[in-house]
Please model this.
Amino acid sequence: MSARGHATGNYALFIGLRYSFSRKRNRFTSVIALVSMLGMVLGVASLLTVLSVMNGFGGELRGRILSLVPHGFVSGDEGIEQWRSLASRIESLDSVLAVSPYISDKVILASGRTLRGAVLTAIDPELQARVSKIPAALIQGSLESLEEPGFSVVLGASLARMLGVRLGDSVQVTVPRLTLTPLGAFPRSKRLTVTGIFEVGAQPDSYQAYIGLRSGQKLLGPASGVDGLQLKTDNLYTAPETMATVARLLPPELGVKDWSQTQGSLFQAVKMEKIMVSLLLLSVVAVAAFNIVSTLVMSVAEKRRDIAVLRTMGARAGGIMAIFVAHGLGLAAVGISLGAVLGVFLSLNISAITVFVENLLGVKLFDPSVYFISKLPSQLMWSDVIAVVTASLLLSLLATVYPARRAARVAPAEVLRYE
Model:
C-alpha cells in the first residue's frame, strides 16, 4: 500500500471513531446512536444465550436417549439363529467394545381398564449392561430380576405411571403374533410381574419395557434365535464408520444400522429448530444494525460542512466513505462487544439465574413431574460466539454502505457557498 493510502486509512479511522464517541454531537443523533448500540447489545446477548440453551437441550436429549440406545444394530428379516458366533466375529473388531442380543416388538400393555402401547424388548441383562446404561437408570428393582424364573418386566417410569402399577404389580401383555388353538388363531397374551422401573428423563420412559431373553423367545419368538444384535463402539460419533466396517464382515442378508439412522430424525429436528431460532433472533441484530443507517444519515447531514472542508483539503471520495464506515463500525463494535460479554455471562450462569428467579418468585419454572428436566441446561460453544460476532459485524458493515456513499457524494462547493 502507498504512503497516501496509509495516510487516508489513518485519518479516516481517527475521524470516524472521533465522530462515534464525540460528546459534541446533536442530542437527537446521540439518542439514536445509543438506541442502535443497545439494540445490538440485546440482540447479540439474546442470540448467544438462546443458542447456548438449545445446545444444552440437545446435549441433554442426546445423553439421555443414547444412554439406552446402543451405537449400532445388526438385524435380519428372518432373525439370527447362530448369534453367539456372529457376536464373537463382530467383537473381534478393535472399534467394537460389546455386543448384546435382542428381540423386540410392539405390544399392548394392560392394567385394569388402562391400555397403553409399548415397545417390548427382550434382552440378556448381563450383556445389555455392557452396551447401554440401563442399569444406572433403574430407580426401583434390578435388571438381574429378568433372569429369575417366571415372566418379569422392567418398565419406564412414565409408562408405569400411566398404567398405574408399582413394583410387584402385574400387567397383561398382548403380542401381535398369533397362537393357533383348536378354536382358532388368537394373539399371544401373558401376565408379567413388574420387577423394575427405570427413568432416563426422556421419551423412552413413556414407551419402553424390557423382559429377559428366554422369556422373550417364548413370548415373542424366534424360539432359539434373536431378532438382532446391539453394538457399543469405542466412539459414539464414529459409529457410522464402524458400522460400515461391520457390514463388510457380514452376509448380505443381514442389515446394519447405527444410532444416527434410528434416532437421526429426532436430532435433525433439534438441529433444524436451532437454525430457525438463530435466523429469527439474527433478525433482531439486523434491525439494530440497520438502525445505524439512521444514525449515519443524520450524522452525514450534521457533518456536511466538515465533509466539504475535507474535500477541499484533498480528501478523496473513498476517504470520506471510509470515515463514515469507521463511524458506523465503531458504534456497532461497542454494541457487539458488550452484547457478546453479556451473552457469554448469561450462557454460563443461566441455570443459577433460573434457580434464583424460582426462589425469588416462589414458583417452579421446570417441574420435574411435568418436564423431563428440573433446570435450564446451557452449553456455550465458542464457535457460536465467533459466528454471531462475525455475522453481526457483517450486517453492520452492510448498513454503513448507503450513508457512506451518500457522504462521499456531498458537493463541497455547494455546501461552502451557503456558509
In short: Residues 71-258 form one domain. The two ends are 37 Å apart (CA to CA).
